Structures are given as C-alpha cells and as structure tokens.
C-alpha cells in the first residue's frame, strides 16, 4: 500500500498538471489555500467565483484558517448539491493545516478536489488529462476514486446507528405522524436552502466589511501617525507658548506665533476630527465584530442544520426503502395462503411417503423371502430340467425298444402262425419233419437273451445294494438247459442261461459295494435308512421276478418236451408205452403267476391261445424289467443329489421313500409311480 508521502506526491503532480499557478513542490505551498482556490475555480468558475476572504500573501495562520474554511464550505456545498456526493470519513483539520501544514489533512482536502473534478460537468477533460500522467500518479488518483465510491455505496446500503435506533416500525409508515415527519423534512430542506443563501449573502457582506475594516485599519494607522506627529508639534508649541508667556521667548519669534497658533488650531481641529473619526471607526469595528459573531453563530447554526439535513435525508431514504418494502409486502397474505396450501400438500405427501415406506418395508420382506426361496426354486428348476432330459432320453430309449419289441412281436406272431400251421399239418397227418429242420425259434432266442440279461443285471444290483451274506446269489440254478430229442428227430430250441463267466466277480462285487456305501454315506441317517429299506424291497421284488422267470423257463421247456412227445406217435408208433410213461402233466405255476392252461391229453394239440399268453407274459416281464432298471437308476441319482439338496427337499415336502404326502406336479407324480412300481406295490 502506498505511503502518505507517495499519495501526497501524486496529488501534487496532478495539481501541477492543471497549470493554474506556479509549480508546487511541497505541501506547505498549499496551506494558504491560494492554489486550491484556483483549482476549484478551474473546476467550476460559477460555484467558486470571487476571491478568498484573506490575503494569501500574509503569513498568519488565522488568515490561512479563514481561507481554508471558506474553501471547505464552498467545496462541501458543491459536492453535496451539484455532484450529489456525501462527505464521509475523516474531515480534514483545517486549523492543523493552517498552523503546521498537516500532511494527512492536506491529503484529505486534495482528495476532495479530485472527487469534485471527476464529478463536475467538465469531468471528461479532467479524465483525459489524468491519463497523460505517470503510472504512480494514476494509481493514486484511481485509489482515491475507488475510496470515494466505496464510501458512497456503503452509505447508501447501511443506515447510520442513529437511524437504526430511531427507525419506525413498518406498520407505522403510513401513520399521520410519519407524514408529518416527511413534511418536517421537506420544511427543513427549504429552511436549509434559505439558510445556505443567507449564509452566502452574509459571507459576501462579511468579506466586504472585512475589506472596509482593513481600509479603516490602514487609515487608522495613518491617522495615528499623523496624530502622534500633531501631538509632538502641540507639545513643542505648548512648550514654546509657555516660554513666550514667561517672557523668556525671543521677540523675534512673535511674528511666527500667529502662524503657529493658526497651525495649532488647525491641528487641534484635525485631531478632534481624527478622534471623532477614530471613535466612529471603533464603533464600526464593534459593529463588525458583532456582525462577525453573528455570522459565526449563523455558520454554527448552518453546520448544525446541515448535519440535521443529512440525518433527515438518511431518514428519508430509510423511510423510502421501508415504504418500498411495505408496497412489496402487500401480497404477503396471498403468499401465506399459498404457502399454507403447499404445507398441507407436503404434509399429505409426507403421510403418503410414510405409508409407502411401511408398504415398501413389507414388500422388502416379501422380496427377501422370495430371494431366499430363489436358490431352492433354481435348484428345483435344475432338477426338473435334469429330470426332463432323463425322461427324454428314457422316452427315446423306450421308443427304440418299442420298435424292437414291435418287430419282435411281428416275428413272434409269424412263429406262432408257423407253429399253428405245423399243428394243423400234424392234425392232418402230414409229416412236419422237413419243416422242423430250421433254426431255433426267435421266441426261444428272445427268451434266452432276456433271461441272460436279467440274470446279469440281477447279480450286479444284488452285489451293489446288499452285503454278500445278506442276499446270496443262488448257485444251484442251471447254467444251461438243453432239451434233446432222439438222434433221428430234429433238435428243439434250447434255453441258454448265463454261465459262471458272465456273472460279477468277487473283486467287482467289492468295488461296487464300496462305491454304493460311500454314496449312501453322503446323505443323512434317515435318508440312508430309507434308501436301504427301499433298495432291500427292490431286491426282494427282483428275486421274486427271478423265481417267476425260472419257473416260466421250466414250464416252457416242459412244453417243448410235450410237443416232442406228441410228434413221436406218428414217427415211431412202437414207442407208445414209453411215451405214455413220460406223458405227465406239467408242474403247476407259482401262486403269484397266472395259472397256464393244463394239457388235458398227450394226444391233444397245443392251443394257440397258450402261445399268445406266453408271448404276452414275456412282453410284460420284459417291460417290468426295464421299469425296474429305470427305477434303480433313478434311485441312485436321487441318493447322489440328497447330499446337497436334502434339507431343501424336506422343506419343500419333496417326494421320497417313506413320505406319505401327496406329490405336486406331473414329474413328481411320475416319480411316485416309478417308485411304487419299483417297490412292487
């Protein structure tokens, strides 16, 4: 920040650039007010007309003080009335300037000159002239202008402390008292204008009287000198007169006494006139002193009135602002009603949001429940997809088997027709020996193949599910059964059972048992127990079916023997007794199987419906065997999945062994049917 010396140097440079007086080098040259008055005269010659009240050449601080007060009053009036600028901040001490040339006060006074220059009617010329100065001077002038602008804006935006204390309430702005205050403000402004005019007139008269007083002082000094000379002459004349009267005077001087007397008389007359004039001057000086006191009193009153005017102007500005605020707040009730409606709407929205939050909490709980159920649903969907794939595979496999069985059935029907034709030929007495020399019947081949496959699957399943001591595989069953006829007769179809090499070995049995046990150990205890019980039931059902198949095979063999014996009477009639001895009824079938028709006589032909029954039983046994194998595969898959989804299956009430709940869905019902078929229910 610039120092006071730098600011003073910049302001002095600006004053010298105006060229209104000889160059100024120090602030002491500005203390008499002569240069400042010339600068003001250049700014506005009408507002600052005339001369200073005191002679600036006299080096007396009282005269300087008088000139500075005159300059400050005229400058204040110009800034307030013509420029609209209010004097704020530090007021320069004019007495300190006159006595000791105070630097801060001179700087303050010069700043007022700069403000007056940039706000006058010819400010454009001053601004152009300021641009030609040095940068330091321009910075000082710019800082001065900014300070003046800041003070003015601060004064307009911030009321004084006194105004803040006495400002009325907004509700009382339209009261009669407030209107009276405005009238008093206007009256005070008119009074202030009159006082300013009177003050200017009195100041002008004061200046004229001061000039007259100075002239009177000069005349008084001259007359005083002349009076002193006259007194000296009178004294000399008196002395001489006394000497003459005493007779000591020279007689030669008597002609001159007349002249002296005349001169003395004239001087006395002049002295009397001078004394009277001096008395008049004293009276005039006293009158002027009284007028000066009165003028000073008027100046003080003017200052007080100016202060009151500024205060009233600030009050008027504040009142105007409050009036504008009152006009702006006339629609306050409407705004309040609108705000009340908005508040009611917001309260309604708040209630709705609270209700929505409570509802959302319930929905969030439901979503959490659904989210917890989602893994189980995904698992079930995965299981359903797997079941669908397995069912599709089973469907394709069953379809292929169905086609094979249909083809096989057609072949069996063809064989049955052949047998029926042979029986008819036999009844007609035609020798069917030539027709007997053909390959074994496809029915017998299918029975042998089904029997071998069934025995192999039975052995593997029994070894995998039970210990080797629980359900041992029967070893007394014949491996092969061959029915031979005489050497001359054609060989009948034979039933080939699986040999010892086709069964499961001891090492394979142990490996299968260990694998099944580890698989069963993966589930819980209840799951393992239910699975083992179901598997035992399945093994028992398989054992029963095995027994049935064995009895059926024996029955078929006996039927073949019976057919062979029926052929012998025509081929070898001499062997009748032996054939009669061998003609024994076949053993009855098991209780679980349907009773086959009895052969009434060895000579009767075999009815064709018996062959059809055997074919149907064979088909039923094959289908039941496939269903049991599929159920066994499904049971193993379910045991493998119980270790990972046992708890979720129990929680959903899934279908399993020992569960009496009604299954849900088509796939679960199909599983239930397969389980019932596998358990032999």
UniProtKB/TrEMBL annotation:
InterPro entries: CH_dom_sf, HOOK_N
Transmembrane segments: none
Highest taxon listed in the record's lineage: Eukaryota
Region (Disordered): 147-180, 426-451, 470-496, 568-609, 643-671
Biological source species: Exophiala mesophila (Black yeast-like fungus)
Domain HOOK N-terminal: 10-147
Entry GO CC: cytoplasm; microtubule organizing center
Compositional bias of kind Basic and acidic residues: 434-448
Molecular function per GO: dynein light intermediate chain binding; microtubule binding
Lineage: Eukaryota, Fungi, Dikarya, Ascomycota, Pezizomycotina
Keywords from the UniProt entry: Coiled coil, Cytoplasm
One Pfam family from the record: HOOK_N
Biological process, per Gene Ontology: cytoplasmic microtubule organization; cytoskeleton-dependent intracellular transport
Record flagged with keyword Cytoplasm: yes
Coiled-coil parts of chain: 192-240
Record protein name field: HOOK N-terminal domain-containing protein
Subcellular location as annotated: Cytoplasm
């Amino acid at each position: 920040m610039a120092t006071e010396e730098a600011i003073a140097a910049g302001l002095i440079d600006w004053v010298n650039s105006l060229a209104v007086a000889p160059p100024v080098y120090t602030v002491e040259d500005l203390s008499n007010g002569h240069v400042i008055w010339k600068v003001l005269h250049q700014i506005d010659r009408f507002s600052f007309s005339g001369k200073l009240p005191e002679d600036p050449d006299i080096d007396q601080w009282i005269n300087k003080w008088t000139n500075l007060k005159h300059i400050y009053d005229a400058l204040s009036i110009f800034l307030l009335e013509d420029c609209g600028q209010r004097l704020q901040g530090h007021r320069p001490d004019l007495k300190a300037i006159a006595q000791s040339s105070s630097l801060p006060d001179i700087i303050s006074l010069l700043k007022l000159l700069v403000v007056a220059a940039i706000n006058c009617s010819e400010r454009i010329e001053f601004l152009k002239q300021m641009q030609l100065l040095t940068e330091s001077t321009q910075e000082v002038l710019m800082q001065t202008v900014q300070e003046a602008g800041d003070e003015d804006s601060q004064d307009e935006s911030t009321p004084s402390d006194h105004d803040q204390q006495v400002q009325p309430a907004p509700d009382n702005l339209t009261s009669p008292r407030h209107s009276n205050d405005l009238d008093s403000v206007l009256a005070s402004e008119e009074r202030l204008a009159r006082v300013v005019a009177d003050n200017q007139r009195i100041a002008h008269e004061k200046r004229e009287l001061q000039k007259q007083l100075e002239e009177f002082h000069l005349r008084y000094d001259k007359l005083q000198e002349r009076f002193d000379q006259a007194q000296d002459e009178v004294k000399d004349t008196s002395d001489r007169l006394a000497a003459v009267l005493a007779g000591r005077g020279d007689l030669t001087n008597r002609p001159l006494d007349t002249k002296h007397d005349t001169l003395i008389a004239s001087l006395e007359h002049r002295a009397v006139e001078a004394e009277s004039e001096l008395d008049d001057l004293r009276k005039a000086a006293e009158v002027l002193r009284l007028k000066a006191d009165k003028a000073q009193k008027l100046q003080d009153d003017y200052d007080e009135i100016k202060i009151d005017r500024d205060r009233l102007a600030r009050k008027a500005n504040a009142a105007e602002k409050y009036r504008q605020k009152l006009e702006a707040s006339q629609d306050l009730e409407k705004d309040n009603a609108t705000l009340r409606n908005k508040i009611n709407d917001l309260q309604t929205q708040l209630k709705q949001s609270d209700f929505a939050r409570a509802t959302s909490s319930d929905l969030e709980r439901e979503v959490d429940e659904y989210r917890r159920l989602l893994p189980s649903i995904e698992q079930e969907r995965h299981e359903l997809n797997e079941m669908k794939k397995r069912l599709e595979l089973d469907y394709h496999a069953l379809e292929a088997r169905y086609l094979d069985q249909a083809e096989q059935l057609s072949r069996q029907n063809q064989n049955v027709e052949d047998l029926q034709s042979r029986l008819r030929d036999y009844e007609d007495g035609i020798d069917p020996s030539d027709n007997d020399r053909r390959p074994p019947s496809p029915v017998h081949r299918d029975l042998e193949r089904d029997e071998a496959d069934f025995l192999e699957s039975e052995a593997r399943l029994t070894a995998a599910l039970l210990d080797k001591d629980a359900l041992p595989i029967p070893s007394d069953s014949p491996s092969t059964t061959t029915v031979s006829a005489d050497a001359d007769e054609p060989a009948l179809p034979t039933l080939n059972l699986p040999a010892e090499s086709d069964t499961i070995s001891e090492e394979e049995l142990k490996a299968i048992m260990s694998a099944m046990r580890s698989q069963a150990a993966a589930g819980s205890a209840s799951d393992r127990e239910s699975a083992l019980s179901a598997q035992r039931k399945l093994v028992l059902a398989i054992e029963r079916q095995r027994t049935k198949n064995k009895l059926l095979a024996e029955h078929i063999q006996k039927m073949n023997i019976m057919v062979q014996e029926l052929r012998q009477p025509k081929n070898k009639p001499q062997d009748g007794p032996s054939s009669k001895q061998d003609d024994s009824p076949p053993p009855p079938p098991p209780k679980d199987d349907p009773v086959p028709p009895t052969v009434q006589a060895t000579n009767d032909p075999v009815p064709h419906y018996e062959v059809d029954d055997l074919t149907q039983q064979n088909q039923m046994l094959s289908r039941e065997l496939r269903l049991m194998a599929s159920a066994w595969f499904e049971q193993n898959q379910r045991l493998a999945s119980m270790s990972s989804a046992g708890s979720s299956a129990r929680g959903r009430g899934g279908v399993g062994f020992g569960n009496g709940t009604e299954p849900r869905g088509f796939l679960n019902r199909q599983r239930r049917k397969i389980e019932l078929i596998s358990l032999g229910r």
